[in-house]
Amino acid sequence: MIRIRGRVPRRVLALGLPTVWGAVAVTYKLTCPLAQQNGFEARLATSAVFFAVGTGLILHVRQALLRELRQIRQVAGAAQSALLRPLPPRVDGLNIAAAQLSADRGASVGGDLYEVIATEHGVRVVMGDVRGHGLSALGTVAAVLGSFREAVHDEPELGCVLRRLERALSRHLRQRDREEDPVAEDFVTVLLLEIRHDGALYALNCGHPWPYLLSGTRVDPLTRADPLPPLGPFPLPPELPPMHCGSLLPDETLVLHTDGAEDARDAHGRFFSLSGALAKAVGETPQAVLGSVFAGLLRHAAGAPADDIALLVLRNDRQLQRTSGARGTARPATSQPQPTTHL
Fold first, then answer.
1. Nearest to 323 by CA among 200, 217, 203
2. Is CATH 3.90.550.10 what the domain over 86-316 is classified as, yes or no?
3. Which of 278, 300, 302 minimizes the C-alpha distance to 291?
4. Tally of helices (H runs) and strands (E runs) in the chain
5. Would you list the domain boundaries of the chain?
6. What is the pLDDT of residues 142-197, one digit of tens each?
7. Is 245 helix (H, G, I), strand (E, B) or coil?
8. CB of 242 closer than 8 Å to CB of 159
């Protein structure tokens, strides 16, 4: 009852003030003798009264709209915080750090998504980027993340997880198009990783940037194979064998990112060197890597990136298990890359 009583006077005030101002202007025009005169001074006074009333109305409407926009942004920010819930610092021996920087700084809402979940099949990771950013991207983020969180436990094959994401996205887009104006060529880039208990790495990539592998003093892309097209415009191929990308060995780090990290430009139009920033943070903890890269990004873009940016850092802190085989390092897969379609 207290909350309801607090709202009623605010609504009455919001409707009453414009009415009172309008009534004052009409009353002045009809009853004030000065308003009936045609002299210069009388017209000047009448104009001043109507200008003051009009300015007051405009300021009142502007304030009401700003207040409503702040409330919408607060709700949207809370919704995204629930969707992109904070990741645990450790998952099955992996040290983790993740964060997102939205291009819509006022709303603090972006179209990037990520999640890390330990399953009986290994640690499964998703990093995605919804076309566009801001409030309109939240529904798509919710559809993809919700499907991933269920599918990773149900599906033994990584390809089946990706098909579940595709179906969830298709349902969401069909529903949205029925309720709103259709959005042309809406899509989501998605990277799926599976890190097995022995460190073996498997991946499926739909139009997303490949992560960087930090090993010793080296910073290299995990692989240079061509990805599949993004989810949305084209159906997935009939066969979806995951790509074997070597192993994530103890003390090695993977850095997943969205394309906003490498597309950020400075005042002269130069792109941000993500690999260069990572080279300066080799050997650091995931939290330190995250802080160093974001600090460099903000300096490079003068605090105003043009696109959403998300980073997810995973470091293998598991103890090395000695086997009879030779110790290898994560290297690009030797299997044939999937063909890509340029959008």
1. 200
2. no
3. 278
4. 8, 11
5. 2-76, 86-316
6. 899 999 999 999 999 999 999 999 999 999 988 877 776 655 567 899 999 999 99
7. strand
8. yes
